[in-house]
Amino acid sequence: MRTQDTNPISACHAARLAAALGLLCAAVAHAFDLTVTIQNARSNEGTVRAALYEAKTGWLRDGAPVQRRFTTPQSSGTVIVFHDLPAGRYAVSGFHDENGNEKLDTNAMGMNIEPIAFSRDARGRMGPPKFDDAAFDLTQDMAITMALH
């Protein structure tokens, strides 16, 4: 006759391990929303555009944002929401596309002629700010404000 191993310590250990793995999976699977209010649009013309980045290697590079959004500017502050984000380190860039041509316009010297904004109100010297200057940790639903300059 064959007997089955019913070691209570092993069963208890397995149950605890399964519970811990379940909690870990639930934490990893949770997604957050980031609400960005962009202030100081000079008019209600065109669109306000924002891009969300999660790595300094792709910071401000075309095709590298995790998500992009655009909407009509509002004088009281333009709200853009990035949905379903895993916890992590992010940075946001934005600009007021005043003429609606879907790009940030610059002058002959390469200087922006449309207002721009970055998370944490980061500013660069002789160029855009570094990712780390604009970056923040997203660990829950969050709201930030950025000012166009």
Written account of the structure:
The protein has 149 residues and is of the alpha+beta class. 17% of the residues lie in helices and 34% in strands. The protein contains two helices and eight strands, in the order H-E-E-E-E-E-E-H-E-E. The strands form two sheets. Strands 2, 3, 5, 6 and 7 form a five-stranded antiparallel sheet that branches. Strands 4-1-8 form a three-stranded mixed sheet, with no helix packed on it. The termini are far apart.
Radius of gyration: 23 Å
What order do the SSEs take from the amino end to the carboxyl end, as H and E?
A: HEEEEEEHEE
Residue share in helix: 10-25%
Would you count the extended β strands for me? 8
SS-derived structural category: alpha+beta
Helices, by number, come to 2
Strand content: 25-35%
Distance between the termini: 82 Å
